[in-house]
Specification:
heterodimer; A: mainly alpha; B: mainly alpha; 2 helices; rod-shaped; respiratory chain (chain B); transmembrane (chain B)
Chain lengths: 155, 117
């Protein structure tokens, strides 16, 4: 316990000393960092709505971590599915947008140009739209405003 | 004796150069600039509200995903802790493992009566 061993430099592959019990089906974790998640958040909300709501209703029943494992696996599988589809269909737009978010404090309003391209591509290929619940009706949604007050250096 | 053609006229009028726009013009200009500024401010405030809404919803959409992942890990840790306890305390007669078998997350959901246990 005296020497720091960098896991990156380890020659042996990491082995979880306490894996999940065998009776719990395995699911691959998403492993996506915050910027791609933020970039895909609204499509995730649209694509996995049923699974997400099911999971949150289950959590409202009981907050115990063992209670909603099945619903949770469904949520993760759905998110996997969406990210895979995004990468298959709109890889360049997706990467451009999340890289922009990464470089701009993860604020949407700095990256409207890339976002519009991504939204267009996702709508054409996957049929998903970005809608913000609770936004005032009859007004242009904030992500489609032509000349916003708050902009980054890049419009 | 006066010079031929007479003396030149005496300069008695005040000679003031043009002093810029009048007070009314300046006042009007300032008012116009301020009005435009307040218009932008109001627009910006409305926009800020929508930006905040967008940010909040982007996080809300991610809650189930992150919670599911965290739950799996919490469950794994809980089971590992129970297993460890079973291993350590196997020689102690009458030891109950069930002491640890409480839910790992003890927050009660708001729309549910507190449990009687």
């Amino acid at each position: 316990m005296s020497r720091y061993l960098d896991p990156e430099e380890s020659t042996k592959p990491y082995k979880d000393p306490t894996p999940l019990p065998a009776d719990v089906p395995k699911v691959k974790e998403l492993g996506v960092t915050s910027a791609p998640l933020k970039s895909a958040a609204f499509f995730l909300g649209a694509f996995c709505k049923d699974y997400n709501e099911d999971f949150m209703l289950c959590k409202a029943e009981n907050r115990d971590s063992a209670h909603c494992l099945k619903e949770g696996r469904r949520v993760t599988r759905c998110a996997q599915d969406l990210i895979t589809k995004l990468r298959e269909n709109c890889l360049s737009e997706f990467e451009k947008h999340w890289n922009c978010l990464e470089y701009n404090n993860q604020e949407y309003y700095h990256c409207r140009k890339d976002e519009r391209e991504l939204n267009k591509c996702v709508f054409e290929k996957l049929g998903l739209t970005k809608t913000i619940p609770g936004a005032p009706a009859g007004k242009t949604p904030i992500h489609e405003v032509k000349n916003p007050v708050f902009t980054g250096v890049q419009k | 004796m006066p010079p031929p053609g007479g003396f030149e006229a005496i300069k008695y009028k005040r000679n003031l150069p043009l002093r810029g726009p009048s007070g009314l013009v300046i006042l009007g200009g300032v008012t116009a600039v301020c009005a435009y500024g307040f218009y932008r401010l109001g627009k910006g405030n409305l926009e800020k509200r929508e930006l905040q809404r967008e940010k909040v919803w982007s996080r809300i959409h991610l809650v189930p995903l992150l919670l599911a992942e965290g739950d799996r890990d919490a469950y794994r840790r809980q089971q590992a802790a129970l297993e460890r306890e079973r291993e350590i305390m196997k020689d102690v007669p009458g030891w109950e493992i069930s002491r640890l078998q409480i839910p790992l997350i003890l927050t009660e959901s708001p729309n549910e009566a507190p449990k009687s246990t």
